[in-house]
Amino acid sequence: MTHYKLTLAYDGTNFAGYQIQPHQRTVQGVLQKALGKMAKVDSIHIDGSGRTDSGVHALGQVVSFDFPIEIPEQAMLRAMNSLMPLDIEILKAEFAPEDFHARYSAKGKRYMYRVARGRFTDPFNRLYTGHWPYPLDLAKVQIALDDVVGTHDFTSFAASGGVIVNKVRTIYEATVRDDPEHNEVVFEFYGNGFLYNMVRILVATLLEIGSGRRDVHDFLRLYEVKDRQQARGTAPASGLYLKEVYY
Amino acid sequence: MTHYKLTLAYDGTNFAGYQIQPHQRTVQGVLQKALGKMAKVDSIHIDGSGRTDSGVHALGQVVSFDFPIEIPEQAMLRAMNSLMPLDIEILKAEFAPEDFHARYSAKGKRYMYRVARGRFTDPFNRLYTGHWPYPLDLAKVQIALDDVVGTHDFTSFAASGGVIVNKVRTIYEATVRDDPEHNEVVFEFYGNGFLYNMVRILVATLLEIGSGRRDVHDFLRLYEVKDRQQARGTAPASGLYLKEVYY
User: Fold this and answer.
1) Taking CA atoms, which of A103, A152, B100, B209 is between 20 and 30 Å from A63?
2) Residue A34: closest CA among A44, A20, A26
3) Strands A168-179 and A184-191
4) Distance between CA atoms of B75 and B89, rounded to whole angstroms?
5) Cβ B121–A89 below 8 Å, yes or no?
6) Min Cα–Cα distance to chain B from A69, Å
7) Measured between CB atoms, does B120 come within 8 Å of chain A?
8) Alpha carbon A238 to chain centroid distance?
């Protein structure tokens, strides 16, 4: 057995998310089947760094697996890309130490969220951005982002349905930048872990603050109340990208 | 009756082309139905500047039509966008002189073609570019583009099936530029008219010249032979954009 680490990008639009599910097109399902084809078995189990939902994209998802044949890294890269559909690209294939696990070895993750600012939806970006046509004061968003950085109980920012009890996470970095060329604002969040839908709920709350619909320091209140109903909005999946996983 | 001119952008991916067809989702069909809805009739006939094929995009398609009610330009813009699916955006709505016809009044058109240069297909650009991973000498392409500019018989560059007999067209401008930020090369063609699939065949031939698979002056031979079989390739629809129509 040879242990591998793959880094990949995908357009999440036409996947029912990362995680394998019966009768659905999933990223994990497509990868496991392709590896199975190479090894002439049904399927090779892979471990991903974490799930992404339907419509959520990845610029640097990471998976790890044991493969029965030792194939050089470059040959693995070429072979896998030749078996991939056009909405997945394998960026890198590497040998990994036996104890490397895409999920358990991860020390942190970076997500990006793109928000289109046009008056109407741009047809070419509808699948790759969220959309917020309202006036937005980035200075207010910046003040709120300073409240996001640090170690907090993010209960108010986790969609229900998760089984995770401890909802304390540390955000090392939270930024927003204006991208006037594309008429977008782009958020990035780098932290030790993220709860279900957390980035999308953070972004929705930040946009409401930037448009004056919430107090700039509403995050401090939301950490206290630990109530998902108070944060309300969830920005659409289309704007969200898993950008990098850190090991 | 009030006569209108609309300028619109669309992502051609999920349309069976511009032109209306029974039981198919087309740009013309969607527009005619929306205008019909506003006027409380079944459908309002529109004239487009020309067809685009399935998968071909538009950044500035133009249509004209008579509308039974006089609606201010900005109200027409807002109303139409509120009725559009997310893959069409109305960019401009204007009153037009009665004799304005999107097709017959057009004096020229500009097309753009985006070619992705990466080793593998980028998942996020697969619907919005063609792909040419081979070495490409842009100096050779530039020499060939100088042969494209001017008045020529483009019989070798017209897909069969058209009913047009006169295949002489004038290209005023034909350019290529490197876009290293996106790892693309971008072609533009501005001319008085274009035959069926002409831009896509031009691009395929230019890429073959740039990769040394054809003589740099092969265009001169192809104008002479007037034989579609000699030009062979057709670049994919996904890279093609109707950029502007000139009146």
Assistant:
1) A152
2) A44
3) antiparallel
4) 15
5) yes
6) 24
7) yes
8) 11
Q: Is A86 close to B57, i.e. CB distance below 8 A?
A: no
State the average pLDDT over residues A150-160. Answer: 92
User: For each of chain B's 247 residues, which pLDDT tens digit applies?
Assistant: 999 999 999 999 999 999 999 999 999 999 999 999 999 999 999 999 999 999 999 999 999 999 999 999 999 999 999 999 999 999 999 999 999 999 999 999 999 999 999 999 999 999 999 999 999 999 999 999 999 999 999 999 998 766 678 999 999 999 999 999 999 999 999 999 999 999 999 999 999 999 999 999 999 999 999 998 898 899 999 999 999 999 9
Share the mean pLDDT of chain A: 96
Residues belonging to chain B: 247
**What are the structure tokens assigned to A128, written together?**
């790759």
Contact between A80 and A94 (Cβ < 8 Å): no
With a CB cutoff of 8 Å and minimum separation 6, the contacts of B95 are: B2, B3, B4, B5, B73
Contacts with B9 from chain A: Cβ below 8 Å: 122-124
Catalytic residues of B: 53
Amino acid at B168: V
Residue A65's pLDDT is 98
- Whether residue A161 is predicted with pLDDT greater than 70 in this model: the reply is no
For B175-184, which contacts have Cβ atoms below 8 Å and span 24 or more sequence positions?
A: B175/B145, B176/B138, B176/B141, B176/B142, B176/B145, B176/B206, B178/B138, B182/B116, B182/B125, B183/B116, B183/B117, B183/B118, B183/B122, B184/B114, B184/B115, B184/B116, B184/B117, B184/B125, B184/B129
Domains and CATH numbers, chain B: 2-95 (3.30.70.580), 108-246 (3.30.70.660)
Number of CB atoms found within 10 A of residue B227's CB? 10
Categorize the per-residue pLDDT at A159 as very low, low, confident or very high, splitting at 50, 70 and 90. confident
Q: Cα angle vertex B75, ends B69, B76, to 5°? A: 60
Chain B interface includes A40 (CB < 8 A): no
pLDDT on residue B159: 84
ipTM of the complex: 0.82
- For position B150, what pLDDT does the model report? 97
Query: If you search the block for the tokens 């001017």, which residue do you land on?
Result: B150
Instruction: Count Cα neighbours of B78 within 13 Å in the Cβ-side half-sphere.
Output: 5
Q: Is B111 marked within a binding site?
A: yes
Measured CA to CA in angstroms, residue A182 lies from A178, A235, B31, B242 at distances of 9, 19, 26, 20
Tokens of A114: 């793109």
B138-148 and B218-225 helices cross at what angle (nearest 10)? 40
